[in-house]
Amino acid sequence: MTELIRFDQVSYRYPGGQDVLGDVSFSIAQGEMVYVTGPSGAGKSTLLRLIAALCRAQRGQIVVMGQNLSVLKPRRVPAFRQHIGLVFQNFNLLADRTVFDNVALPLVVRGYAYADIARRTRAALDALGLLRYEKSLPLTLSGGEQQRVGIARAIVTKPALILADEPTGNLDPKMAMDVMRGFARFNEAGVTVMIATHAIDLIEAVPKRIIHLERGHISDRLPTAASRLGETHGVR
Ligand SMILES: Nc1ncnc2c1ncn2[C@@H]1O[C@H](COP(=O)(O)OP(=O)(O)OP(=O)(O)O)[C@@H](O)[C@H]1O
């Protein structure tokens, strides 16, 4: 078993705040698919941000793909991130570029030949059911369609690791299920996948390992329909 991600007693606080993650330790093997669950504010997004080196833990050690993130030099962060597909809540799409251009961008940045870019981009668009929108501008699409453009852009480089934060948040139930099954297919093809989600029904439909957070700590208590009810009502 090759370890892809390791957290050893990791704590993190935003500037001026309190610890939002405290003494978090876990290990994820290459090829695993893992859900990160927990009530709103439990620290799910922060956990994914730490793995992507978008922020840096004050205490403990994080190793991702063999790289110890506490000693990763800022100028090396972009190269490190090239192996990660990020799907975050704000889609960060370029409003003045077509769907095709948005999805192709990571390949353009990496200097792929145009024929390769076109083939891979269309394959990613096809996988997310977006081919017919390739010439559209993102703002002419629905929220769910824009979310899928963000996912297509994250997978187009065939990353070793996909980190997805609430990737089904804006999707209708059928599309949400399709997207979750899509992640499971990438995972079957060997990609390690971590998904922060509240969608207990999808987790039950596509069951995988769960890392459950409660107030910044890993908890053995797994998410249930009852906790989902609590979340809907904002109970912490
Ligand atoms: N940029 C920030 N500055 C200060 N505090 C922050 C920042 N981002 C998040 N927090 C705080 O950190 C805690 C954890 O937030 P995080 O977004 O990781 O939780 P989450 O489990 O992903 O929540 P949600 O399910 O609502 O997305 C929360 O208390 C939040 O208010």
Written description of the protein model:
By secondary structure, the protein is of the alpha/beta class. It has a domain at 1-81 and 201-236: 3-Layer(aba) Sandwich (Rossmann fold), CATH 3.40.50. It has eight helices and ten strands. The protein has helices spanning 44-51, 77-81, 99-109, 114-127, 143-155, 173-188, 200-205, 225-232, and strands at 3-13, 19-29, 33-37, 59-64, 67-68, 84-87, 161-165, 192-196, 209-214, 217-219. Adenosine-5'-triphosphate (ATP) binds at residues 14, 17, 20, 38, 40-46, 196.
Question: Short summary of the structure?
Answer:
The protein is of the alpha/beta class and 236 residues long. Helix content is 34%, strand content 25%. The protein is built from eight helices and ten strands.
Topology:
Layout: E1 3-13, E2 19-29, E3 33-37, H1 44-51, E4 59-64, E5 67-68, H2 77-81, E6 84-87, H3 99-109, H4 114-127, H5 143-155, E7 161-165, H6 173-188, E8 192-196, H7 200-205, E9 209-214, E10 217-219, H8 225-232
Parallel strand pairs: 3-8, 3-9, 6-7, 7-8
Antiparallel strand pairs: 1-2, 1-4, 4-5, 9-10
Helix pairs in contact: 3-4, 3-5, 4-5
The chain binds adenosine-5'-triphosphate.
